[in-house]
Amino acid sequence: MNELNLPAIAGGVVIGLSFGVIMQRSRFCMVAAVSNAMVMRDYRHVQAFLAAWAIAIPGVMFVESAGWVAIADAGYRSARLNWSGSIAGGLLFGFGAALAGGCAARTLVNVAEGHLGSLITLVAMMLFAGITTFGLLEPARMALSGATAITLASGDSGISTVMRVPPWLAGVVISIVAVGLIVRLGQIRENARLIFAGAAIGGLVVLAWLVNGWWAADEFTSGRLAAIAITGPLARISYWLSTNTGSVLNFGGAFVAATFVGAMLSAVLRRGFIAATADARRIPHNLIGGAFMGIGATLAGGCNIGQGLSGVSTLSIGSILATVSMVGGTVLGVKWWERHV
After folding, report:
1. Which residue among 20, 274, 303, 309 sits deepest, i.e. has the most Cβ atoms within 10 Å of its Cβ?
2. Residues 182, 186, 189, 194: what is their CA dihedral angle, to the nearest 10 degrees?
3. What are the pLDDT digits (tens) for 244-262?
């Protein structure tokens, strides 16, 4: 049995509590970003994501350039590019998130606020993430990856490595582009609250890499270098609950639990905690959407947080491919709702 990495757990608690509060107060969500932009031409949540990338990407690239954290050793930057899983999983996750009415993190926060429909989605997502990672669907997932994955000659699937530019330079350029898009979308003052929330989340991504790769780095404690994620830790919790094996006392488990607690405390203090019963008409959407999210996130190597923020912050080609596919899947899901509502 591995010894507990207490600094990593403590870091997960602090970052998770902060993340939960920010998420609850800002309503930061990929589905909201896509649907609001499509239906109402409301780009506030898009600006929030751009702000998160504008901080996270250059921050992580600087951390890598300074040699503080071996970002290239993270699974996101593996030379083995599972392009089919990134695309298929991303599309499935995005469609499921739109069907269920919220991404992985938004679903967790909604449960913390007392929404029983989101609890159904969360349970389905956990169950199918566990099945796809460790259970019945694992052989199919591994077979797909084995048949289609390619190995890059660069030995690293990071954009900066492939393009042979310094990581810090790639980070600065992308940050400038993200800030330019925020300005181009306009209404900066009116949307300042959400933009600031996105920037704060981007800062938490950088902090998580520093916690796992520097402050809490421990050669005697097993575990792949990573930052914040939702679906992966939930899959491990599901596996632990069903088999009583494995460990959830790590950064990921602490982060997810603390996110839930932080969101609940914020909701209670703001009188936003309301025990809302599930809409019977929506339960099939909750179940199917949650299942699609669990399967899709596992195929893609992470959800819109694990891939869309942590993975993209490393400028991993696979993470960017998965994130674009998640947005595409969400677009398809929103269009499906428009035709069936």
Report:
1. 303
2. -50
3. 777 788 999 999 999 999 9
